[in-house]
């Protein structure tokens, strides 16, 4: 059993992962930086809580918080979210991808 770093409740990691994946299918539970129960893991994404989760950019290898990067991306490109380009690209690489698509 683990103690959730958000709510303080005890949880089983496998059950938390199953719950998280059932609600947030495009993310990996193993990328949480701190132990979080399933409910809180889901809430991190629904409430856009920064500092609990990281992805690795599939283009440049940078570790990034997708919530933080999305805020930066949306301020630069209105009308489109970072996940609309790719859930595993950092802001810089996503912008480069959009720029290269516009050049075609």
Set down the secondary structure blueprint:
Blueprint: E1 2-3, E2 10-11, H1 13-23, H2 38-46, E3 55-56, E4 63-64, H3 66-76, H4 82-85, H5 91-103
Antiparallel strand pairs: 1-2, 3-4
Helix pairs in contact: 1-2, 3-5
Characterize the structure shown.
The protein is mainly alpha-helical and 104 residues long. It folds into two domains: 2-46, no CATH class; 55-103, no CATH class. Helix content is 46%, strand content 8%. Strand 3 and strand 4 form a beta hairpin. The longest helix is centred in the last third of the chain and has 13 residues, at 91-103. The protein is elongated, with a radius of gyration of 15 Å. The model has no long low-confidence stretch (mean pLDDT 91).
What is the β-strand count?
Answer: 4
Please tell me the total number of domains: 2
Return the structural class.
Answer: mainly alpha
- Main pleated sheet: 2 strands, antiparallel
Average pLDDT: 91
Regarding quaternary structure, how should these chains be classified?
single chain
The Cα radius of gyration reads: 15 Å
**Helices and strands, in N-to-C order?**
EEHHEEHHH
Number of helices: 5
How do the strands of the widest beta sheet line up side by side? 1-2
What portion of residues belong to β-strands? Answer: 5-15%
**Any low-confidence stretches, pLDDT <50, length ≥5?**
none
Estimate the global geometry from the Cα principal axes: elongated
Distance linking N and C termini = 52 Å
Percent in helix: 40-55%
What's the quick description here?
46% of the residues lie in helices and 8% in strands. By secondary structure, the protein is mainly α.
